[in-house]
Amino acid sequence: MTTSITSSKFRSEMSRYIDVAQREPVSILSRGTRPRAVLVSQEFYEAAIEALEDRDDIAAAAKAREETVTISHEELKAELGIDQ
């Protein structure tokens, strides 16, 4: 669930909504209807950033696997001049 408030209400009750954000996101609205920002806890923010970094790492690893040339065990032995 997300709490939605106007920016003026946020300014007047900032401490209260920082406390609320420890439990759930707080959507700050501009002109009463348009989302302007979302306030979240530090813990939520860090977890979200870590998840995004993990997603990027997974995508980079998948791309690297696609670009990697593979050779068979037999081809490697022949390339290295190993008979056994």
Can you describe what's shown?
- This protein has two domains: 40 residues, YefM-like fold, CATH 3.40.1620; 43 residues.
- It is built from four helices and three strands, in the order E-H-H-E-E-H-H.
- It has a three-stranded mixed sheet.
- Strand 2 and strand 3 form a beta hairpin.
- The longest helix is centred in the middle third of the chain and has 26 residues.
- The termini are far apart.
- The model has no long low-confidence stretch (mean pLDDT 93).
Please write out the topology:
Layout: E1 3-6, H1 7-12, H2 14-21, E2 26-30, E3 34-39, H3 42-67, H4 73-80
Parallel strand pairs: 1-2
Antiparallel strand pairs: 2-3
* Number of separate strands: 3
- Which of globular, elongated, flat, extended, rod-shaped describes the shape? rod-shaped
Tally the helices: what do you get?
4
Main structural class: alpha+beta
Report strand %: 15-25%
Give helix and strand order, one letter per element, not per position.
Answer: EHHEEHH
Fraction of residues in H or I helices: 55-70%
- Unreliable stretches, pLDDT < 50, 5 or more residues? none
User: Major β-sheet, in short?
Assistant: 3 strands, mixed
Mean pLDDT: 93
Terminal Cα span = 65 Å
Function: Antitoxin component of a type II toxin-antitoxin (TA) system.
Family: Belongs to the phD/YefM antitoxin family.
Protein name: Antitoxin
